[in-house]
Amino acid sequence: MKYLKNYTKFKEPVNESNFKVNEGKDDYVGRHSGTNITLKKGYKHHTEEELYKLYDKIGELVKDDLKVKNVTVVFEQVNEARSKKVTKQMWNKMSDEKRFDALLSVVKDPDDAEKYVEFDWNDLPSGFERDMILFEKH
Description:
The two termini are about 35 Å apart. This protein has 6 helices and 5 strands; from the N terminus they run E-E-H-H-E-E-H-H-H-H-E. The chain is an alpha+beta fold. The protein is elongated and about 65 Å long. It has a 3-stranded mixed sheet, with helices on one face. Strands 4-5 form a two-stranded antiparallel sheet. Mean pLDDT is about 75; it is low at about 1-20.
């Protein structure tokens, strides 16, 4: 178990007999003011320093009057969007909704984007063909 050996902020030592957690290799585990704090999969997504800051904030939130025994935070993978440059071929096959989404990457005002949805690729303002992207989930 990773018990934050380098930190002296603990008010109570960790007692393994009352601290049973199914801990994985990427988990960050500690005890703050009588509360067991587990950051599941923390090391997969954050550095030691980031996890310690989060651990400390959680500890401060639950200490004293709340009488919380255990806190577990589970980090999950976030599906990030991937950007793809819009080409003439893509534009010609896109629905109006997809075109609108792509236009928002080059036009800030949705009303302006809406007026370009039905334009042919060659009639779009200069620079759109160079800068327009579409975000896709993967």
